[in-house]
UniProtKB/TrEMBL annotation:
PROSITE patterns on file: LON_N (PS51787)
InterPro entries: Lon_prtase_N (IPR003111), Lon_prtase_N_sf (IPR046336), PUA-like_sf (IPR015947)
SUPFAM superfamilies: PUA domain-like
Highest taxon above the source species: Bacteria
Lineage, broadest ranks: Bacteria, Pseudomonadati, Pseudomonadota, Alphaproteobacteria, Rhodobacterales
Protein name per Swiss-Prot or TrEMBL: LON peptidase substrate-binding domain-containing protein
Domain called Lon N-terminal: residue spans: 11-204
């Protein structure tokens, strides 16, 4: 368990469109570009072993930045190396952060000065969603998965706790990068669940031509 005082002020950041990491969730990644291989090597040497996952912007913002301002840091918890020196890694989500300043230094990858203020809840216990209606949510999810031709282990979804279920779907569903950014920035688990529901309903309306779901 991290404390706020354990978190660094400067962080290596990995811009990857569509790759969403959330606190207390796990993100597997395949690393093969030389600059990011070096990032992993440097991360292993650090005390905190944190990497910041962040969405690139479709175009630079008014502040001139190429990255979204909010990302999520994950601790490097698993690593295996292939014979041709690619890395298969897992990041375990720790906390969201806000980028204060992007840094281009001697390293071939990006770093940023960050602040963790405003995301103290991320370091706490598993979050609950008192308004979660599991049967209705799973019914919508089933229709969405059928529409998108996706498959899953439905028995495990029935038993998963609210945070694991909602965060896993936020990370794994084929939402676009802007939608995933909205899920990342959701201030609470309930807000994230509401956003997931809205995105699934929107996808179903788009493919059915209906204005509202019955």
């Amino acid at each position: 368990m991290y404390r706020a005082s354990d978190l660094p002020e400067t962080l290596a950041v990995f811009p990857l469109p569509g790759a969403l990491l959330l606190p207390r969730s796990r993100l597997p990644l395949h690393i093969f570009e030389p600059r990011y291989l070096q990032m992993i090597d440097d991360c292993l040497k650090s005390e905190h072993r944190l990497i910041g996952m962040v969405q690139p912007r479709a175009q630079k913002g008014s502040d001139g930045r190429a990255l979204q301002s909010i990302g999520c840091a994950g601790r490097l918890t698993q690593l295996s190396e292939t014979e041709d020196r690619r890395y298969m890694i897992t990041l375990s989500g720790v906390s969201r952060f806000r980028i204060m300043r992007e840094i281009s230094g001697f390293e071939p990858y990006l770093k940023a000065d960050v602040t963790w203020t405003g995301f103290e809840r991320d370091l706490g216990r598993v979050e609950s969603d008192t308004g979660f209606d599991r049967p209705a949510f799973l019914d919508l999810l089933r229709r969405y998965f059928e529409d998108q031709e996706l498959s899953t282990d439905w028995d495990s979804l029935k038993d998963a706790d609210e945070e694991l279920l909602i965060n896993s779907l936020s990370m794994l569903c084929p939402f676009d990068p802007e939608e995933k950014q909205a899920l990342l920035e959701a201030p609470s688990l309930a807000t994230r669940r509401e956003t997931v529901v809205t995105l699934m309903e929107f996808a179903l309306r788009g493919n059915s031509g209906e204005e509202t779901l019955q």
